[in-house]
Amino acid sequence: MTGRTEKASPERTLFPIIGIGASAGGLDAFKRFVTSMPADSGMAFVLVQHLDPNHESLTAELLARHTTMQVVEARDQMPVEIDHVYMIPPNKYLTIHDNVLQLSEPVLRRGLRLPIDNFFRSLTETNMESYNRSFAEAIVNTIHEPLLILDKRLKVVAASPAFYTTFRTDTKATEGRSIFDIGNGQWNIPTLRTLLADIVPGRGEFNDYEVTQEFPDIGNKTMLLNARMIERLPDQAVSILLAIKDISKQKIAEQAFIGAKNTAEEVNQAKSRFLAAASHDLRQPLQALSLLNRVLTNTVRDPRALEIIEKQTESIVSMGELLDALLNLSKIQAGAVEPVVRGFAVADMLVRLKREFELQAKEKGLRLHVAPCSVTIRSDPVLLDRIIHIFIANAISYTTEGKVLIGCRRQGSSLRIEVWDTGAGIPADRLESILVEFHQLDNPAREKSKGMGLGLAVAKYTARLLGHRIDVRSTLGKGSMFAVEVPMGEMSNPVQTGLTDSDAATVTAPAQTSVLMIDDDAAVLDATCLLLESQGFHVVAATSGAEALSLLASGELQPYCVISDYRLPDGLTGTELIQRIRGTLKRDIPAVVLTGDISPEAMQTLQESGCKILYKPVRTNELVLTVKQMIGKQDRPARGAEK
After folding, report:
1. What is the β-pairing status of strands 561-565 and 538-542?
2. Which of 70, 556, 140, 369 is nearest to 148 (CA)?
């Protein structure tokens, strides 16, 4: 029988071990065998013969006369060497383990002595151990990460070079030891012990168990452990592969990334708060200026003074438009805008935009037409509204006669929302540049009346944020078309706003024609009251939601219309206050919300409120006209009903 073992040297050279058995009369056969074998065969031979247990054996001495190989009688714990012959001594059992011969007292089995069977069995086991070791080393030497091979008793059979390098240990301190004993017990981790104990009889594997352990020589390590049980032929021996991935640097990088991300989010939140505050606080004085300027227009009669006031009005309007564009663009570029995408009917948005621009188009003598469309689209309604708003505003601004058409057309799974005008058109080589900040056509003198060239840049960045595509086409002398492509989708759950239809049906006409005005900014409040009073309205002012509700609770005030700032000092928003006022009055009173907050969250809330929204600085004629229209749609109370 043949086995393979390793030479007991640093090189660990493999060589065959040949086991030969013979009966008591097999001496001549042994002589012929050793005579025929070369002295440098590269093998070792172990001869096992049935010998008389009561007499010494001269077999080794006799065989040595027939070969130049070393022939010796085996001794206990004798290492097996290459090109040697070993003879079993009488009255002993001979076994081999890990390249070492071992002698033991014979065990009688029904009077039989079985030295040959006993040796061959041990040689087979040694052969399998050598095979197992070779198998293990073949695996671990090809793995560039720390890897342990354990036997079913969880002792280390082999380890990869990366294990020794990473954990600064060696084979002597590792192989043959329980995994829980190596490294002075540093791997004796209760959860790992449980996981490994479950592998052989149970699941057969575990994955990505993360453990952090302190090692005296290498410090703190965070590792991912993965284990698999394998059965190998021919003996179906069980081995456990334990892969160890050092993720310490990765965890440090993750923590650094999380820290940087949190810092970036804090910076973005700070930017958002700053931009929101700037949006509101900068618009407040502009709003007061605009309102007071209109009051001056109504009271001054001197032509020269009126001319100055008109130029002042143009400057205020330009300041407001520039502020809007700068803040919108800054928010998008700062990452302070988070889209809220949902399904909604495109018709609702287009009808609202038509109402918003009807007066402006009419003042320029243009026809504004919206083609019906029943498609549901999927986008952020506030941000998409902003894009279409810019397209329509530009179309009206750059069209002197004719019309502006807003229409939709299907294109695959998307809907193109298009704005057509009959303006002067854009040269083909300028179509790309008009989307660049501060770029304008035919305005070399930077006339403020033609804007600042930021609107289309805002539209471009907003569309990019939403993942929508913008398309521009134009023909000189005929007009232009601006379009945005939006994916079609299903309607999201509708938002309930205002009073229900059944509530509105029971509303009776109010008894008074007063306008209730709420704003915590004294300058804006006074200017708005002066403007409305100059137009013949009776205005009751309140500086907070609580004050407004207190005035209504007495029952003496029955306003015809409510105008409220969006940001109020007592924890209420303007939309929330209007809902409370409607509840107090038990009718769906017309309401206008004035706001300088252009954040997507605020704009979403405002659009869903069911109120008329005007963004600061509000054009004074738009505010006056809005109030007049709201009051005009209701039945006038009888003369004298007002106190």
Report:
1. unpaired
2. 140
The Cα 165–Cα 242 span in angstroms is 16
Alpha helix positions (H), 364-496 = 381-397, 455-466
Structure tokens at 566: 């969006």
pTM flag (> 0.70)? no
Instruction: Answer for the pair 488, 378: CB distance below 8 angstroms, yes or no.
Output: yes
How far apart, in whole angstroms, are the C-alpha atoms of residue 278 and residue 274?
A: 6
Which has the closest alpha carbon to 164: 148, 186, 178? 148
Q: Would you state the structure tokens that stand for residue 329, as one six-digit string?
A: 């663009």
311 backbone φψ class: left, alpha, beta (φ>0; ψ -120 to 50): alpha
Strand partners, 73: 87
- CA-based R_g, the chain, Å: 47
343 strand-pairing partners: 378
- Beginning with the edge strand found earlier in the chain, give each strand of the sheet holding 100-104 in spatial order: 78-79, 100-104, 93-97
Of 500, 529, 497, 503, nearest in space to 516 by CA: 529
Between CA 571 and CA 9 the distance in angstroms is: 85
In order along the chain (643 residues), what is the average pLDDT of each group of 10 residues?
48 72 83 88 87 84 90 92 91 84 76 73 71 62 80 85 86 88 84 81 76 83 86 60 87 87 76 63 72 78 81 72 66 68 91 87 92 92 88 90 93 93 85 57 46 70 90 90 92 45 33 78 86 87 91 84 89 90 90 80 77 81 85 52 38
Category of 451 on φ-ψ map: left (φ > 0), alpha (ψ -120 to 50) or beta: left
Q: Would you tell me how many other CB atoms lie within 10 Å of the CB of residue 506?
A: 9
- CA dist., res. 482 & res. 416, Å (int): 10
Q: Is the dihedral of CA 607, 609, 612, 617 positive or negative?
A: negative
- Cα 270 versus chain centre, distance: 21
